[in-house]
Amino acid sequence: MNFLQIILKQMRQRSLSTWLTMLSVLLGVGLAVSIMVLRREGQNLFAQTDFGYDILIGPPKGSPLQLTLNTVYHMDQSPGVIPYALYEDMSRKTAPPAGRPDYRPWVKNAVSFMVGDSYNGRRIVGTSPLLFGFDDQGQRVTGEAFQYRKDKSYELATGRAFHPRKFEAVIGSEVAEREHLTLYDDKLSEGENEKRLATFRATHGMPGPNEKPDIHKPKWHVVGILKPTHTANDKVLFVPVVSLYAIAEHEEGMIDQALMRAKIDPGKVPPEKLDSVLQSLGIDPQKVPESLKKKFKLKSAKPAAAAPGGDLLKDVAPAKTAAAESDEDPDAFHFDDKGEIVPDLPQEEWTISAIMVKSRGDGFQAQQIMYNFKVIDDRATAVNPASVMRQFFDTFLSGSTTLLLIISAMVTVVAAVSIMTTIYNSVAARRREIAILRALGATRTRILSLICFEAALIGLIGGLAGFVAGHLLSGAGSIYLQQTLGEGIHWLQFDKWEFIYLGAVVFIAFLAGLVPALKAYTTPVATNLAAS
Amino acid sequence: MALHLSQLKKNYTGPDGSVVSVIDIDNLTIADGEQVALIGSSGSGKTTLLHMIAGIVAADTGRIEYDFSGMPPDGIAPGQARPAGIDYRGATPQHKTDIARMTEANRDVFRGSHVGYIFQTHHLLGGFTALENVLLGMSFTGRKPDRAWARRLLDDVGLSDRRDYKPEKLSVGQQQRVAVARALANRPKLVLADEPTGALDPATAQQVLELIRKLCVEVGASLLLVTHDLDIAHQLPRVLSLSEINRASMAAKAAARSQTSLA
Ligand SMILES: Nc1ncnc2c1ncn2[C@@H]1O[C@H](COP(=O)(O)OP(=O)(O)OP(=O)(O)O)[C@@H](O)[C@H]1O
Ligand SMILES: [Mg+2]
Questions:
Q1: Which of A1, A107, A339, A449 has the fewest CB atoms in 10 Å of its CB?
Q2: Measuring CA to CA, which residue among B21, B43, B40, B27 is closest to residue B243?
Q3: What is the number of other CB atoms lying within 10 angstroms of the CB of residue A429?
Q4: Which of B216, B246, B217 is nearest to B11 (CA)?
């Protein structure tokens, strides 16, 4: 019988308490290891610096974190909107018209980003074809392709980029797979394509499970499916930003917002005063489409609209009565002679959620842009997504995980105490056996080390199991992150701190064994041999 | 191996603080391979004496010499390493070694290697099988356990079919036979048996006694066997009465006598 065999035999003899003690060690170590993994890999995930773009431009009052989470990870709500004109200014490749700022020296490329609708709970993002490396003419841009990560551009698995002014969509790989959406086939009829799930309609916002979804009228054709990027973008349906302005309610929403900004309750504006109110807001009533005006008048003249006959309706928009009666939103756009969308909403009223900007050069230009929106142009704010995320990690994740780490260290200490009490009790119960071992020639120090190593072994086995459990736990966390963010973590990766922790646990277990071991050390042999 | 005790004294302090002399022996020799029965009344110090000889209890004064002169090397096969740092290594065939002068740790190792101890109750370890209990007896010598010898011993005590039984599955007699095998596991030079048959019925007691004696002859060990049973004692070639060699128990007897005469 060697040393280890003797220890293992004795442990097996008291297997229940040994297992329970190991379980407590497992819990402590598992908790600590999973927190260490999540913290480390979470830092890699969130505080990554390899963004493909260095500036996010969003509404002036929104929080930088919300803007970044919303744009990069498709989490949280959009903090608000900025004028589309800003995007025009930033993305302009030719000299700006008089009175417009020239951002060309600073901006390498800029991509629009507009949220607000969903398809089966998946986010629809309005953007420009530049996102996929194509200009508005459908030509592949050279050298300036948008990168979602450093040196990583979107690639189409099948199909093509959408046309910037058509109801077309390019969808992420995961959406395609999970929603069984397929590529639109021109050779088939619209109806057949619809059956094949090659088209989809947008739902307003993100309705909750019990809310009645408000489904928009326009239908988008799926013209492209992206290769997996292993980011949250795999869950997104990309459509031309212009196509979103062609949705009646969006226009309405924008006018609503304009009224709200001016602290005017849209429900209380009398129909006849609408034009003058719009004018006072700087909106040319002549340019507001009839369909839109009609909606506002309906809203503000509800009692009249509810009356049978709907005389008011006929007065205002006699041509569109049919549409109104069919309970469908009226079309808020028309197609031009090339078949491209022309939203009724005037371009001055277009807004977007954010602009993703890749600056030129080495950071100086980025600084210029940041400074510009901080001091000169108050229509928007500019943030660096990488530093926002790093700060988020440092202030929130880092702090809270430190607390969790302390808690799990305490759980580990409790586990060590339970090792101590378990073995202490067993030593008390085994005084006779210890005396026998002494009679067989075991020295006091041999007994001492037998017990300390037994404790250390419980720490080691429980610790190793905890190490595995901790990584499995972070694997579960990774699946969750994968589902919410589109990006998992490297939960199998470990670093030296985990081993240092494991070593410390074994050492603490060894020390915990020392108390009962000292009791065993001082167990008198002769008297305990006499007791039978 | 011969054993010499001289001027051996052991006092205990009673609960009231009074010092009680338990062992006070001028001289006692047990010759190489001799088998000696030790008798004495209860409380006369038999167990204490055995504990002192085995080094379990330290002597207050006096000598307990193991005399290896004329012995073949002490069971350690040539070329095999001896445990390091132990001064009983002076116990070569030419030397005597006095365990009364050893440190406790050295006494433990010495006992593990040279002394086999059999208790009144078997004192086997519950979690270990019969064979493992015998192997356990070999685990603290610094030598590699000799499995074949452990099996041989179990065969010799008639338990070849019970090797893998845990103690609780064995009868009391079988348990004691395992204990005998364990005591001889290291081919000791001296076997100390403290009422080894005390818990057994006469037939089993006889059987166990014969086993002990036979195995001691086989490994060349001297035997000192404590018993209350005079039938057993007189089967051994030499019977020692502790009261006759222990001054402490003579004094105790005298004290007891004076007390009864006073009454
Ligand atoms: N640790 C101790 N402290 C104090 N006195 C002790 C201690 N151990 C033994 N004694 C005393 O020493 C005396 C001898 O005890 P011992 O156990 O050696 O007797 P014994 O001859 O073996 O008796 P028995 O035949 O009943 O086993 C007893 O009077 C006992 O009370
Ligand atoms: Mg006794």
A1: A339
A2: B40
A3: 10
A4: B246
Strand partners, A239: A126
Q: What length does chain A have?
A: 532
Contact criterion met (CB below 8 Å) for A54 and A377: no
Using a CB-CB cut-off of 8 Å, the residues of chain A touching B104 are: 443-444
* CA B23 to chain CA centroid, nearest Å: 17
Q: Which residue matches tokens 């060349």?
A: B220
**pLDDT of residue A325 exceeding 50:** no
Kindly give the pairing relationship between strand B61-67 and strand B96-98: antiparallel
Residue in A50, A34, A57, A36 with CA at minimum distance from that of residue A389 = A50
**What sign for the dihedral angle of Cα A429, A433, A434, A436?**
positive
Integer Cα distance of B128 and B145 in angstroms = 15
Give start and end residues of each alpha helix (H) in A209-289: 241-245, 248-261, 274-280
> What are the chain B neighbours of A524 within 8 Å (beta carbons)?
none
Confidence of residue A308 (pLDDT cuts 50, 70, 90): very low
Q: How far lies A475's CA from each of A24, A258, A491, in Å? A: 21, 47, 5
Burial of residue A192 (CB within 10 Å: 0-12, 13-18, 19+) is exposed
What span, in angstroms and rounded, lies between the C-alpha atoms of A161 and A200? 17
The answer for residues whose C-beta is within 8 angstroms of residue A400's C-beta and 6 or more apart is none
Q: How many CB atoms lie within 10 A of CB B96?
A: 16
Q: What is the pLDDT of residues A133-188, one digit of tens each?
A: 888 777 887 766 788 887 788 888 999 889 888 999 999 999 999 999 999 988 88
Ligand 1 mutation pick, B11, B12, B24, B229, max ligand atoms within 8 A of CB: B12
Task: Give domain limits for chain A.
Answer: 3-47+390-531, 55-383
Distance of CA A470 to the CA centre of its chain: 23
pTM of the model: 0.70
Range of the domain at B130: 2-262
Which ligand is nearest the CA of B21, by number? 1
Nearest CA to ligand 1 atom 20: B43
As a 3-state breakdown, chain A gives helix, strand, coil percent values, each rounded to 5, of: 55, 15, 30
Over 50: is that where the pLDDT of A505 sits? yes
Q: Can you tell me the distance from the alpha carbon of A506 to that of A29, in angstroms, rounded to the nearest whole number?
A: 11
Q: Let me know: does A53 contact A386? Beta carbons within 8 Å.
A: no
Query: In residues, how long is chain B?
Result: 263
Q: What is the CATH number of the domain that holds B245?
A: 3.40.50.300
Structure tokens at A8: 């293992």
Place of tokens 């062609």: A246
Q: What is the Cα–Cα distance from A360 to A53, expressed in whole angstroms?
A: 10
**Is the Cβ–Cβ distance between A45 and A482 less than 8 Å?**
no
**DSSP 8-state symbol, B90:** G
Residue A502, pLDDT > 60, answer yes
Q: Is the pLDDT of residue A250 over 80?
A: no
d(CA B137, CA A415): 34
Q: Is-contact A145 A133, C-beta < 8 A?
A: yes
CA neighbor of A422 nearest in space, from A466, A448, A459, A469: A459
Chain-chain contact of A439 with B54 (C-beta, under 8 angstroms): yes
Backbone angles phi, psi at A357, to 5 degrees: -120, 135
Coil, helix or strand at residue A224:
strand
In B42-146 the beta strands, taken as DSSP E runs, fall at 61-67, 96-98, 115-118
Q: How far is B262 from chain A (nearest CA, A)?
A: 34
Nearest CA of chain B to the CA of A507: how many Å? 26
Residue B34, pLDDT score? 95
Number of domains present in the structure of chain B = 1
**Rounded (5°) CA angle A30-A35-A37:** 95
Residue in A closest to B137 by C-alpha:
A440
Residue given tokens 């026998």 in the structure block = A436
